[in-house]
Amino acid sequence: MHWKLHVTPRDALRAAVAGTEGSFVSGAAHALYEAGGKAVLPAAVQRALRGAVEGEASRVLAGVGLLAGGTAASARMLEGGALRAVAQRTAAAAGRQVLRGLGAAALGGALIDGGWALVQAVRKVRRGAMTKREAATYVATEAGAGAAATAAGAAAAALLVTVTGGLAAPAVFVVGAAASLGARAGIDVWLRARDRGAIRAELQPERA
To answer: Which of 23, 45, 105, 181 has the most CB atoms within 10 Å of its CB?
Structure first.
């Protein structure tokens, strides 16, 4: 069985936020790598992961016309003096910066999905297809799902840098974006399964 991920403009926007925030915190994530993250995986495994991720990112971006050359040939994010300064921060400060980045990613995802859900809910309430209480629950659920998916994407990018060291900027972005798409797809599957379970529970006759 083949499974195809359908990407909507809303998904693409959410993924872009996750990729951008993942790239933004990569300097702090590299500081965590220097503080101990580099001991998690053997050096050979780190090199293999970096090569695999950058190669795949190169194919993805070239396929959509966003990259003329390979990501490995791109300027690495951590080669700039400003980002080297970031890498010299303490692990505690770097950790706080990563957390702030994840919070910003979550906020962006909540605004994207929550705003979209609000528009849909208002229309349904006006048509009488949804009560105000149902609308509030729907908007909150979508906002929460968007926040979780976007934060998960940025976290995946930051974690990869933390355990492998510096990655080319396009690769970090692709990891964050792809992880966000996958997380949202998984959340949607879980929400549909939960809703079907709730319906079955309501239809189940009460026992005396």
So the answer is: 105
Q: Strands, DSSP E only, in 51-157?
A: none
For residue 194, CA distances in Å to 30, 116, 146, 158, 206 come to 38, 21, 17, 30, 20
Q: Give me the phi and psi of 166, to 5 degrees please.
A: -70, 135
> pLDDT, tens digit, for every residue of 153-180?
999 999 999 999 878 888 899 999 999 9
Dist CA 69 CA 17 (whole Å): 23
Please tell me the distance from the alpha carbon of residue 150 to that of residue 19, in angstroms, as a whole number. 9
- In order of 127, 130, 161, 202, the CA distances from 77 in angstroms are 50, 48, 11, 54
Q: At what angle do helices 132-164 and 91-127 cross, to 10 degrees?
A: 150
β-bridge partners, 168: 76
pLDDT digits (tens, 9 = 90+) for 80-120: 444 444 444 588 888 999 999 999 999 999 999 999 999 99
Sign of CA dihedral 177, 183, 189, 192: negative
Q: CA-to-CA distance for 145 and 184, rounded, in angstroms?
A: 7
Q: What is the pTM of this model?
A: 0.79
Closest CA to 181 of 208, 207, 163, 157: 157
Indicate the helix (H) or strand (E) that contains 103.
Answer: helix 91-127
Angle at 65 between CA 61 and CA 66, to 5 degrees: 55
